Amino acid sequence: MSVAFRRESDDEHMEPKFEIPLPPGPNWVTARGMRMTRETVAELEAVDVTAMDEEAAKKHKRLLRYWRTRLATALEQPVPDGDAVAFGACVTYRLNGQDKRVAIVGDDEADPNAGRISFSSPLARAMMDAEVGETVDFAGKAEAIEIVEIAAASAD
């Protein structure tokens, strides 16, 4: 039989397992984000992987490596003063005649459904450094967003 038709093992045909990708840029976190990261690492470290099958244990260890890296690289940012849109600010803005409110937080803490967006998101980048009453360009539209109110984000 030709070597071309011989299969050494099933493993060589499996899709490779990669590490969980880290978001580019600095790992800025709020006090809430730092607390959540520490809690996540503690919860993952408390799991007994010896009771898991091999694949589940590998997946768990990969997740734990991700969160340990995020904890080791976390840079807790100071609470903003509220004069301008900044990391950690809670911003009320007007877009298309509707007022919306978001908190600008770190990548791992972001949850758009809960009103928390990453500082690296296009919306947050468009509003950065703007002050109350100022309008900023967004999504290709000039002066699309008006900053209505700025406050420090909640630590909840």
From TrEMBL:
InterPro entries: GreA/GreB_C_sf, Tscrpt_elong_fac_GreA/B_C, Tscrpt_elong_fac_GreA/B_fam. Pfam families: GreA_GreB. Residues 1-21 are annotated as: Disordered. One of its GO terms (molecular function) is translation elongation factor activity. Keywords: Elongation factor, Protein biosynthesis. Residues 1-18 have a biased composition (Basic and acidic residues). Residues 82-150 form the Transcription elongation factor GreA/GreB C-terminal domain. This is GreA/GreB family elongation factor. It comes from Sphingobium naphthae.
